[in-house]
């Protein structure tokens, strides 16, 4: 899952990005509104964390413009706590609204909920034949036995599981599993796919030649 | 007693008392006047008769005018005693006879006594009043017994007894004439009038009391309106105002004063609320930095270097909060007038050039050049605080400037005022933002990334005004900004 954080306070941006990366997300950052809007429009993020008070273009503006073209789930993060600000945010197109200062654990849970909802998932548990994926705890179980997966491998499994039945192109996988700071070498992806097959079974991920991968 | 605590009742009571006294006084006076008038009338009648009697006594009617008594028919006998057939027997003229007797409800009677002859009766009418007190009783003994005509009786002396009224007249010839009449009619009339006056007075009193009650109630109505508004205000609704219908009266003035007080209260509360929420708001970001940094750091085991970074970030945030707290406290104290400004004489131009030195590194970083033209000038004030002001203006001029921009600082004396102007050719401020520039927490760029809470100009303004000066701004977008500070020296 790839997240964009748009926040002008550098210390906050840095530690939030780090926390999310350690949670297994690929994270892009933007320190001002213009940069944030550009990235949000041009890349497919699984969720955007958006501050309201930004230089160059404020959060309301970004949201308004973004909603013309994109359906990305947006979580507004802001110091403005008045009810009317929340109403304005949610009505302009945000999917959630969190007031600073916030608990990290809460941000994580809300992100998960947003991502779950956009995949039409209702719970944190995804079951595919004998494999159980707990998206909250980031665990995968095969026949009730926990599996050891690297962060990247888990991210791959989770993404494909959440898009179960769809064919996911390699490009998409690159875009959603790696952030802007990482170079995406094409065979890196293949390595991860083959590792996952080793651990979860060769039929788990199906290759559609010329199109991409999918979980059925 | 509760009644005496109420102003309305007290007013009513006093008013009622005064009304009673006035009415009683008036009624009594009217009564006395009428009574006097009535008695004067009676006295006139009595005097007239006394005069006639006196005249008749000394000038008895000629024999020819009257037939000898034994030739008169019985019923024509005047009501006179026949026994006293002295040579100067007293006879009334016929036409005077109707003055006495019962042909008049007054029943005039007379009696003539000779004082010389030991109060011998000379003549009297037949209709004497019963139970008449002895006349002697009223006569004080003359001091000088050789003077048989005590001159205190030069005027007719009135006497009243039972329902009769009489006068006593002493003639110089030594007779005393008493003429009297029944005043029972008059007494009754007077009594009736008295009752009438009392009744009317009572009705007037009642009407007056009722009118007074209504009027007092009306006049005091504004007071209860005022208390009602005050009660609502103390319950928390600061937007209440008293309806001032009559602006000029004393109560109207009171209401006006109270209204303006309530308005100031409301404004002060609103400002305080705004300030508190702004302050809390400003603290949110540094607190969330600390929270997120520490929560992230504690999520797993880290290297010392990572912890160090986290701790440094927390320190930066804490410094920001410290600065914010200082600024807020300074503002609060300036607001409350608690900031004791030092009043010392110092060289303002030197102070300003020191400030310029201080900000030079920051200016150099951005290639901004500072030009100064400072007239040597001494002013009285708090140099530390004015340093704050100058530094704030300089840093603003540098920050909101282009790279390689210019800042011009000028100090001069004009009309007894020190005029400091700080101008830059930077980004300027949009005209719609200009009036708000000195507001607390107001920032031209809405974000907070520069670590600037937006209090600098608000504090500068407060300090300048505490010195009795003024601060103004003028600006054109993309052209530049000028701040002008005027301070009394």
Structural write-up:
- Chain A starts with a strand and ends with a strand.
- Chain A has two domains: 117 residues, Rossmann fold; 90 residues, Winged helix-like DNA-binding domain superfamily/Winged helix DNA-binding domain (Arc Repressor Mutant, subunit A).
- By secondary structure, chain A is an alpha/beta fold.
- The model of chain A has no long low-confidence stretch (mean pLDDT 88).
- Helices cover 42% and strands 20% of the residues of chain A.
- Chain B has 489 residues and is an alpha+beta fold.
- Chain B folds into three domains: 188 residues, no CATH class; 86 residues, Helix Hairpins (Orthogonal Bundle); 149 residues, Histidine kinase-like ATPase, C-terminal domain (Heat Shock Protein 90, 2-Layer Sandwich).
- In chain B, the strands form three sheets. Chain B has a five-stranded antiparallel sheet, covered by helices on one side. In chain B, strands 7-9-10-12-11 form a five-stranded mixed sheet, with helices on one face. A two-stranded antiparallel sheet of chain B has the order 6-8.
- In chain B, a hairpin with a 5-residue loop joins β1 and β2.
- Chain B is rod-shaped.
- About 3% of the residues of chain B have low confidence.
- Chains A and B meet through α1 of A and α5 and α6 of B.
Approximate shape of chain B: rod-shaped
Could you give the count of β-strands of chain B?
Answer: 12
Tell me the β content of chain B.
Answer: 15-25%
Quickly count the helices of chain A.
8
Concise synopsis of the structure shown:
Chain A contains eight helices and eleven strands. Chain A is an alpha/beta fold.
Tags for this entry?
heterodimer, A: 216 residues, alpha/beta, Arc Repressor Mutant, subunit A, 2 domains, five-stranded parallel beta sheet, four-stranded antiparallel beta sheet, 8 helices, 20% strand, B: 489 residues, alpha+beta, Helix Hairpins, Heat Shock Protein 90, five-stranded antiparallel beta sheet, 16% strand
